[in-house]
Amino acid sequence: MPELTRDLKPEEFKEYYFLKEELKDFCRAEGLRLSGSKEDLEKRIVHYLATGEEIKECSVKKIQTDSASEITLDSKLGENFKCSEDKRAFFENQIGKGFKFKVKFQKWLKANPDKTYRDAIDAYFEIQGSGEKTEIGKQFQYNQYIRDFFENNDDKSLDDAIRCWKYKKSLKGHNRYEKSDLEVLM
């Protein structure tokens, strides 16, 4: 795997997997902004490697929310729902300590601003009972790899999966699990 330097070609950069911390280190060294998701950092770096310039990004205006108001079962979720600690505490109190803001539930909350917290609790149990696996975002390649590894190798350990992942991410190309990745365990 090549070292992430300003001499790396954008096309080559896209061929390898870099940890978010490595991307932030590069941005820090080159004086680029560090904020945003891993995907934001990757776009920023590709642009920088191609042009030698920082992307001109417009600032996102923060939306004020009244989080001081008390949440009840009949409260509306509202626009721009944020999974904050007060909302976590409310859901834990209503659902139990096992409550988690899982991705599918978060998407439901954001897509239903006119629904109530009572509706949200009903939706939470419906989503939990569906047994569907949550879709893993493309920026979480490690998580997807580990899930796919265990779907094909229930007799292997997490250490085995991690060894295969480290091998895979050192190679040029995609980082999806393939049966041939098991060669590193031999």
Q: Which descriptor suits the 3D outline?
A: flat
Q: Can you tell me the residue ranges where pLDDT is under 50 for at least 5 consecutive residues? A: 58-68
N-to-C SSE string, H for helix and E for strand: HHHHHHHH
Number of domains: 3
Q: How many separate helices?
A: 8
Largest sheet: none
Class computed from helices, strands and strand pairing: mainly alpha
Radius of gyration: 21 Å
Percent strand equals: under 5%
- Helix share of residues? 40-55%
Average pLDDT reading: 86
The first-to-last residue Cα distance is 22 Å
Beta strand count: 0
What would your notes on this structure say?
The structure is a single chain. The chain has 186 residues and is an all-alpha fold. It folds into 3 domains: 1-61, no CATH class; 63-134, no CATH class; 141-185. The protein is built from 8 helices and no strands. Helix 2 packs across helix 3 (38-51). The longest helix is centred in the N-terminal third of the chain and has 14 residues, at 38-51. It is flat and about 55 Å long. It starts with 9 loop residues before the first helix and ends in a 17-residue tail after the last helix. Mean pLDDT is 86; it is low at 58-68.
